[in-house]
Design brief:
The complex is a heterodimer.
Chain A (H helix, E strand, L loop, with lengths): L15 H8 L10 H18 L5 H23 L2 H21 L1 H12 L1 H6 L7 H27 L7 H29 L3 H17 L12 H9 L1 H14 L6 H25 L3
Chain B lengths: L5 E10 L2 E11 L4 E5 L6 H8 L7 E6 L2 E2 L4 H5 L2 E4 L11 H11 L4 H14 L15 H12 L6 E5 L7 H17 L2 E6 L2 H7 L2 E6 L2 E6 L1 H6 L4 E7 L5 H12 L4 E2 L5 E6 L3 H12 L4 E7 L3 H9 L15
Parallel strand pairs in B: 3-8, 3-9, 6-7, 7-8
Antiparallel strand pairs in B: 1-2, 1-4, 4-5, 9-10, 11-13, 11-14, 12-13
Helix pairs in contact in B: 3-4, 5-6, 9-10
The chains are: A mainly alpha, B alpha/beta.
């Protein structure tokens, strides 16, 4: 047996008899539920953050820069002063920070697929969407971090949300629902595009009109008609309006329902497309 | 159980114009190692991926352990394991975390998963490395953690896709020992390889695959026998004498004698062993010094060359699509 060979202390040779005994363990637990496997994959995403904490760079530094930049860039010009503008822009910047970060979901997935670990996941007898759902659940943690960081920065520069703590939490919750739904576009992209760079490019192209052609920064009433028309149908505008109402404690309109509807549409359309590609890749 | 481990009829997978797998018929019995031998791009990985239900066949049918790979994919998945060509573990996680992850996905609880992970780390000689991230593992350790992840729940059939590609000789021997241990236990192993000596060492039966088609099948001995009764290798003392030796041997043996990359060596596939003695005597009498000679069964390299008309290590033009 190879165990008698002199081997380095750290790396010992595998032992045939131990392998045989490991194989003879016939324990075959009951098949776990879809929720359980999804949560396990979410746990994997958190472990990755633990080992590669740099991953949190985009959800911490990035929102701070965005918040400060946009608040002070537009604050004086649009609302006269930063303190007046902050109530308007804080929920908007929150939405922008989180939605912008969602596209990293796609690049991460592509990297995973290229490394081959997804082959193993796909060969397991589990609920098929769970690696993807789990990944998005793990990302939700990153989004929450981004939301907290952005909120703190806004509070520090004078934001006093009228909806109080509960309002802000509800606003973030709605934002997370939408971000999770939007994530399925990126998972789909990552299954049809070959490189993380390409995904980044297409995702930026999709996000640009969604984020900037919206009511995040300015009231659309000063915009030309064609742009107003776009802003009106842009789901991000509805999301921002709903989040703003929740956080600032103003009256919540139909935008909440519209946002949830959009989320459902995104999940059903891009979730199905993703799973179709996932089941039968190239 | 009566049913075969793997049975396919006319399995086809096309990528654009390329028929990566071009009508494969297999009937592989349970137990032992079945080798899938072919050069890069022959279609080995594509075939394995269809059988492991990662991709769907464009045509043809297949059953794995009696379950249809298209209609009963989930049944197949719960009985087979796959160790891919590229490390199919998460290199950002530690070895232990990887095994716990797979164990949890199979339904082990937290404590059960930890216990199973420790057991496997120990068996595969990775106990001390268990808390290091896989990224920092050597090639051989990666392969081992990969195979360990494949047997978290004992599979009936294990697909090993080029398990020793890129490994140093010692690690390769370790992987071979692992495969032998699993076969002794009773697991059926389907192994792809582009190394002929690996197929020779491990596989009970071998399917030779080239440009998406199976061109020969049998035991290593059968495949070798199909080429001829043996091969004579001769190394002359002085490289200047090789041409003389070649013409002399060609005359005496009455078969083509080939030159090799080694400037002193000659090789010939022979039908009649009796002639060899005479030929060597003739060399000696004409004053050509022989440094070395051997008479043996043909190597699988020669088998491959004879079957395909090109050497095993020169890739065919067809590109294997790993994704």
């Amino acid at each position: 047996m190879s165990t008698e060979e002199a081997v380095a202390p750290v790396e010992r040779a595998p032992q045939a008899h131990a392998i045989a005994s490991a194989l003879s363990s016939t324990e075959r637990p009951a098949r776990p539920s879809a929720l359980s496997t999804s949560v396990t994959f979410g746990w994997r995403a958190l472990l990755k953050i633990k080992h590669v904490p740099e991953q949190l760079f985009d959800v911490t530094v990035f929102p701070v820069i965005m918040t400060l930049l946009f608040t002070y860039l537009f604050g004086g010009a649009i609302a006269g002063s930063v303190s007046e503008y902050i109530a308007y822009i804080a929920p908007g910047v929150l939405v922008q920070s989180v939605l912008f970060i969602t596209m990293y979901t796609g690049t991460t997935l592509r990297t995973d697929i290229d490394k081959g670990v997804f082959d193993r996941f796909r060969s397991l007898p589990i609920w098929r969407p769970s690696p993807l759902v789990g990944m998005l659940l793990g990302d939700a943690v990153r989004f929450i971090v981004a939301a907290i960081v952005t909120s703190i920065v806004c509070l520090l520069i004078g934001w006093r949300p009228g909806g109080g703590f509960v309002g802000v939490v509800l606003g973030v919750a709605l934002l997370l629902v939408f971000a999770f739904s939007l994530g399925w576009i990126w998972t789909f992209l990552s299954l049809i595009l070959r490189t993380p760079g390409a995904i980044m490019g297409v995702a930026s192209f999709v996000l640009m009109p969604l984020l900037f052609g919206s009511n995040i920064f300015v009231d659309p009433s000063t915009m030309p008609g064609w742009l107003q028309a776009w802003v009106d149908v842009n789901p991000v505008s509805d999301l921002v309006t709903a989040v703003r109402a929740l956080m600032n404690g103003t009256e919540l309109g139909s935008e909440l329902g519209i946002t949830l509807l959009w989320s459902a549409v995104l999940v059903s359309v891009f979730g199905s497309l993703t799973m179709w590609k996932y089941r039968n890749p190239r | 159980m009566a049913e075969l481990a793997i049975e396919t009829h006319g399995l086809v997978k096309t990528y654009g114009e390329t028929r990566a797998v071009d009508g494969i018929d297999l009937a592989i019995e349970r137990g032992g190692v079945h080798g899938f031998l072919g050069p890069n791009g022959a279609g080995k990985t594509t075939a394995i991926r269809m059988l492991a239900t990662l991709i769907r066949a464009d045509a043809g049918t297949g059953t794995v352990l009696g379950y249809d790979i298209a209609r009963q994919a989930d049944e197949v998945r719960s009985r087979v394991s796959l160790t891919g060509q590229f490390a199919s573990v998460d290199e950002d996680l530690t070895g232990r975390e990887n095994l716990r992850l797979i164990a949890k996905l199979y339904g082990f609880g937290g404590a059960g998963a930890t216990k199973r992970a420790n057991e496997l780390l120990e068996a595969f000689g990775l106990a001390e490395a268990g808390d290091r991230v896989v990224k920092k593992y050597s090639g051989g350790m990666r392969r081992r953690i990969d195979i360990a992840a494949s047997i978290v729940v004992t599979p009936e059939l294990l697909f090993l896709d080029e398990p020793t590609t890129g490994l140093d000789p010692r690690s390769r021997n370790e992987v071979w020992d692992i495969v032998r241990a699993m076969v002794d236990f009773g697991t059926t192993v389907m192994l792809t390889t582009q190394y002929l000596d690996e197929a020779d060492q491990l596989a009970d039966r071998i399917s030779v695959i080239d440009t998406g088609k199976i061109i020969a099948e049998g035991t290593a001995t059968e495949l070798k026998a199909s080429v001829g009764s043996g091969t004579l290798h001769v190394r002359v003392m002085d490289r200047d004498q090789r041409d003389n030796a070649r013409s002399l041997l060609t005359r005496e043996l009455d078969v083509p004698v080939d030159v090799t990359a080694d400037p002193q060596a000659l090789t010939a596939a022979i039908d009649d062993r009796g002639r060899v003695t005479r030929a060597l005597t003739a060399l000696d009498e004409s004053g050509i010094g022989i440094a070395q000679f051997s008479l043996g069964q043909p190597s699988l390299d020669e088998v491959f060359l004879a079957l395909t008309g090109h050497a095993a290590d020169e890739p065919t033009t067809q590109e294997e699509d790993a994704a």
